[in-house]
Design a protein that fits this description.
Layout (H helix, E strand, L loop, with lengths): L1 E4 L5 E4 L20 H21 L6 H8 L3 H8 L2 H22 L10 H26 L11 H17 L5 H9 L4 H10 L4 H13 L4 H5 L1
Antiparallel strand pairs: 1-2
Length: 223
C-alpha cells in the first residue's frame, strides 16, 4: 500500500494502483489568480531576481523589491508575508525546472533507471541546487516557527525520495529513510559543512553515496 503526506506531516495509505509519481505535489501550484494579481506577482518576482543578480541576496529587502516592481510595500507583505516568504516564492519558480527533470527528464535522474540510481542522481542534483541557490535557501528557512512557510518544493522532493525508497526496499521504513537522506541537505547544515568544515560539493556527494549504500539489500549481495 502506498502513502501520501497528511496535514500532520505523516504518510497515510493511498490507492496502490494510482501512479506513484503523479501524486507528487506540483511546485508553485495554487488557486487560480486574477489577471492583475498574476501580473503583480510576475513584476515582483522579476524585480527580486534582478536585484539578486545585481546586488546579491542582500539586495532582497522588501522595500527595495517593492520600489523596483512599482508596487506598494504593503502589497509585498500581503502577498508573501515577509522576506522568507518571498524567498520561498523565488525558489518555487526555480524548483519547477528541477521537479520536471526528476519526474520526466532522462535517466538516471528521470524515469528509466533503477530506484537507487535515481536517488543517487537526485541527491547529487540537490547538492548542485544548493550550491546555486544556497543564500536564498538560508533566507527562506530563516523564518521563525510562528511565521513558518510550508514549501511545496520540499514536500515534492521528500515524496519523490519516499517513493523511490519504497521501490528499492519494500521492507524498509521508507518515511523515515526519505527524511534521513534529505536531512544532511538542510540549508543551514550544508552551509556549515561548506564554510566552516571546508567540505567540497564532491565530498558531500561522496558521503551521501555512502549513506545510500546502506539501502542496498545485502542479503541478496551475500547470495
Amino acid at each position: 500500500m502506498e502513502s501520501r503526506s497528511t496535514e500532520n506531516g505523516h504518510f497515510a495509505p493511498v490507492d496502490p494502483e494510482a501512479s506513484r509519481e503523479a501524486r507528487l505535489p506540483v511546485i508553485g501550484e495554487g488557486r487560480p489568480e486574477r489577471a492583475d494579481a498574476a501580473r503583480n506577482r510576475d513584476k515582483i518576482l522579476n524585480a527580486a531576481r534582478h536585484l539578486m543578480a545585481t546586488q546579491g541576496v542582500n539586495g532582497l529587502s522588501m522595500s527595495d523589491v517593492a520600489e523596483a516592481a512599482g508596487v506598494g510595500v504593503g502589497t509585498l507583505y500581503r502577498r508573501f508575508g515577509d522576506r522568507a516568504g518571498l524567498a520561498y516564492a523565488l525558489l518555487d519558480e526555480w524548483g519547477r525546472e528541477f521537479q520536471a527533470a526528476f519526474l520526466y527528464g532522462p535517466p538516471p535522474l528521470g524515469p528509466g533507471a533503477p530506484p537507487l540510481e535515481r536517488i543517487r542522481a537526485f541527491l547529487h542534483a540537490y547538492v548542485d541546487d544548493l550550491e546555486e541557490h544556497l543564500d536564498l535557501w538560508l533566507v527562506a528557512e530563516s523564518a521563525s516557527p510562528v511565521a513558518y512557510h510550508p514549501s511545496s518544493d520540499h514536500e515534492a522532493r521528500l515524496m519523490h525520495v519516499f517513493v523511490l525508497v519504497r521501490q528499492a526496499r519494500p521492507d524498509a521504513d521508507a518515511e523515515y529513510l526519505a527524511q534521513a537522506l534529505l536531512a544532511p541537505l538542510a540549508s543551514d547544515l550544508y552551509a556549515h559543512q561548506r564554510s566552516e568544515r571546508g567540505m567540497s560539493p564532491d565530498r558531500i556527494k561522496a558521503g551521501l553515496d555512502q549513506l545510500l549504500h546502506c539501502l542496498e539489500d545485502h542479503r541478496h549481495a551475500r547470495d
